[in-house]
């Protein structure tokens, strides 16, 4: 497919098929909230989040071969003409400035355009828009803006080539302005308008010098400003959020070369104002113009490196460092030779060149190190500053106002500090469990790092490399593992907070349930009984003088009712705390209970120290019920001949064991109500209950209850 047909002739706003709304292919969420909802509903950390099909498809076939052949021919032609023009400028053989005063505008700026152009064609050789942009940069900076076309046209026999290259470069710039960033025109009307403008421009370049001056003053500024307007319209109305992030810098950068062209056509070429004659003002003037011209390649580089324009990968650190270093050395050399020469008004270029070389040599190593750090930070974040990253993580965790805000802050900090496209945290011991926090879009090449706290896996940290096919360096892996250690503590703290909240809710629910039971017992039991007693007392007092025998019967009934009420009160009190504990203490109460089960078929032995330290009430109650339940299970299920209950305090913990020599415990008995009740009582106090046994070998029940937990409760 020919280049023009592939990129321009057939592209419009509706050329590319898009998934219809509701189509299963169209899974892209409309906003970040929908994206998060989709991830929460069905989360797979390695499943990519599909992007809109908005980029031009890869180029292939003979069109690609033609472009790969034409690009180096055109680029080398322009580069050769530029280098030849630089030599002519240096020798003072053109009307353009000499003595290297034009280094910023004539040398540094073209180098910037060449660097980004090569970057585009090397990293995206099959993308039509990338190739168009690369060719536009080759012609725009080194040929059109620097005046190389003027220098070439002044040489005998070169005017036709200069005019032809001027036509090609101008048309490329028009196409760039009207089709960036996806290679499509806004609509067919805009496509026809662009082709019309390109044709008019090409014909205008063939006019005589007098006619060309009037044509360029009227046509070129209007056409370029129209192209800028199209870019602004695209940005505001037609670009997706991802495209806006990628292209907003480029739209701003395109203003630079457009202003330079308009400045030349409307002001300099007609003679409205002349270039400064003095060396220093001229040097400053050219430096400002160079900075303005470098806006386009600089903003393209920002979009590529920071926002992945055209999905160009970022494995360019060393290239960027030495490219920037070369440009900086050239700039330093030009600054010293041009600036100092302009200040001291000297003609000794050898001395200035020697001084410039010395300054460049002295600044080379520190400048390289600074550029390396800057490029590394731009591409990889704070990868080389692990202490700063960990400190930043700690600070974000400290600044989190609520526990549930800690994990989102943590993944966001890791992603921003290392410039990773995706970071997520999953809780639990399964890698595929639900997500607790995520930043960015899931990618198919994400890696997991376990979150281990006190030997237990509490979750996983998912992180995706910066581009497909990349892998984390050992430094990055070590940094992510250290970040996972900090995250594990945060995840464990969040789980503890959730468990504590659940425990509090259970305590409140249990307390309210106990109050409800007490209210029911008092209202339904003691209340009616006491009301009846009050009525009988009134009746007995009324009958005491006239019918003493009836009054005596009522008093006898009252006595019986009072005994019943006393039994009810004892029942309620016993439900709150077994009275045996107040009467005999824990050891004595268990001994009395065990003796009630002892007989010829079962011998029960209770082993307790001579005295126990004061125990918290909650621990006493829990231990008493656990001991009672364990002894009851022995009598009901064990078919044992001997049972031993031991009770002692060690290391601020109350230990209780019940062991028998019965038939053991079958698997089905492990989930019985009695065992579950004993385990719940132990765990409520932060203790443990372990049941060990095998068929024919008896059962050993071991309960360990911390005394401090009982005191707090």
Mean pLDDT: 72
CATH superfamily of the domain at 584-712: Histidine kinase-like ATPase, C-terminal domain
| Shape designation | elongated
Q: Given this structure, which CATH class of the domain at 584-712 is correct? A: Alpha Beta
Biggest sheet character: 5 strands, mixed
Question: What order do the strands of the largest sheet run in, or round the barrel if closed?
Answer: 5-6-7-9-8
Low-confidence stretches: 1-56, 97-101, 313-322
What oligomeric assembly is this protein in? single chain
**Residue share in helix:** 55-70%
By secondary-structure content and strand pairing, the structural class works out as: alpha+beta
Total DSSP helices: 22
Computed CA radius of gyration, to the nearest angstrom: 44 Å
How many β-strand runs?
9
What percent strand? 5-15%
CATH architecture of the domain at 584-712: 2-Layer Sandwich
Tell me the distance between the termini.
Answer: 80 Å
For this structure, the CATH topology of the domain at 584-712 is: Heat Shock Protein 90
Domain Histidine kinase/HSP90-like ATPase: 618-709
InterPro entries: GAF-like_dom_sf, HATPase_C_sf, HATPase_dom, Sensor_HK_TwoCompSys, Sig_transdc_His_kin_sub3_dim/P
Keywords: Cell membrane, Kinase, Membrane, Transferase, Transmembrane, Transmembrane helix, Two-component regulatory system
Protein name: GAF domain-containing sensor histidine kinase
